[in-house]
Structures are given as C-alpha cells and as structure tokens.
Amino acid sequence: RIARTLPDGSVDDTFRYGGPWVHMASVLSPDGGIYVVTSNLKSDLRTTVMDVIRLRPDGTPDPGFSTEVSGRNYVIGSDIYNSPFIFSMARQVDGRLLIAGKFDRVNGAVRRNVARLESDGSLDETFDPGSGPALSSDGSGLGYPVKAMVLARDGGVYLAGEFDRYNGRVHRVVVRLSGDPVPRLRIGQSS
Predict the structure, then answer these.
(1) How far apart are alpha carbons 187 and 169 in whole angstroms?
(2) How far is Cα 27 from Cα 72, in angstroms, rounded to an integer?
(3) What is the pLDDT of residues 163-181, one digit of tens each?
(4) How is residue 26 annotated by DSSP?
(5) Which of 21, 43, 75, 154 has an alpha carbon within 20 to 30 A of 10's alpha carbon?
(6) Burial of 129 by CB count in 10 Å (0-12 exposed, 13-18 middle, 19+ buried)?
(7) pLDDT value of residue 58
(8) Would you place residue 184 in the very low, low, confident or very high pLDDT band (cuts 50, 70, 90)?
(9) CB of 43 within 8 A of CB of 80?
(10) Are 183 and 176 in contact (CB under 8 A)?
(11) Is the pLDDT of residue 122 over 90?
C-alpha cells in the first residue's frame, strides 16, 4: 500500500488510498498528488497489463488520468516470465510524464520500454522511441529494460539499463535522449 507521513514522522490520516498495490515507481505532482504504478494486473497467458494512475492530494484516484501499460508474457511450464514493469518515472517541467521500464505497449500503441504521457494519461504520440533499447547478442527483437531515468536541465533524458543498442545504434548501458526520443550523445564512446 501507500501512505504519507507528516514532518514529525506520523502517518497523515487525510491521505487515504484504498486501491490495488502500488509498485516502486512514483513521482510527485506539483499540487501534492502522486503518480503511481499499480499492480491491478489484468493478465492472460500472453499479455499482462498494469496501470499508471494519478492520486489526488487526499489519496483518491484522479478519474481524469489513466494509462494502461502492457507487455508480452513467455510461459515455460506453469510459470509466466517477462511481465511488464515500470522501474522509473519522471515528471517534466511542462507537466508530461516519462515512464521507463520493461513493456511493449502503452494505451494500445507500441512503445518499447520508454514512453511519454500527456497530463491526462494519454500517450504523447510525438515521442516515439522506435525499436528502443535492445541487446545485440539476442536476436529475439525484444526490448530490454530501462532500469533508471534522469532528466537533464536542458530537457534531455538519460536512460540506463540492460541494453547495448538503442534504435539499432550502439549505446552501451546509458543513452542520452534530447527532448525528442532520438539519441544525441553516446556515453563512453567518441562522437
């Protein structure tokens, strides 16, 4: 679950969230609300869906913000692998929300592990990571997880994770994107 504490460390009883379990990725909104990833999993053997929701300052879900994030599952015996997960979220100055992790689709549109959401939770169609992060030794064509994301002061975005390529170009472990999803700087390599 999720709780808010007061400056003295006691629990803030005015914040009441009674929804599904919340995962580790979260980010505050300027009005005191919070964006969270819930474990309100909707799953079949092929796909798992998670939700990104916005909680108001009192902990109640904002019905004006909703995003579904899905990923393909791989079944071996009775075990399901490769479920989607959001490892990192960041709120840009303009109010849009970046999400990064391990997923295939956002609100039904193909997005490989990186996406940007509008202030209402809809997908920002202008931010398309293409094939996104991948591992060259794996011919599966699957994206590889983005484990961390940091916003740069100039509007760029740093992504780090288990990949050595981004959109088919060599970028080992870390890539920097400009305000659009195109890599502009290769870390650890000459330009």
Answers:
(1) 12
(2) 26
(3) 888 888 888 788 888 765 5
(4) E
(5) 21
(6) buried
(7) 92
(8) very low
(9) yes
(10) yes
(11) yes
- Separation of alpha carbons 139 and 31, rounded Å: 45
Residues 6+ away with beta carbon under 8 Å from 39: 20, 21, 22, 23, 50
- Report field, pTM of the whole predicted structure over 0.85: no
Query: Measured in whole angstroms, how far is the alpha carbon of residue 119 from the centre of its chain?
Result: 15
Please provide the DSSP assignment of 47-100 as one string. Answer: EEEEEEEEE-TTS-EEEEEEEEEEEE-EEETTEEE---EEEEEEE-TTS-EEEE
Q: Is the dihedral of CA 183, 105, 55, 18 positive or negative?
A: negative
pLDDT (tens digit, 9 = 90+) per residue, 81-107? 666 788 899 998 888 999 998 888 899
The span from the CA of 168 to the CA of 136, in Å, is: 9
Q: Which residue has the tokens 């909703």?
A: 66
Angstrom distance (rounded) from CA 94 to CA 133: 25
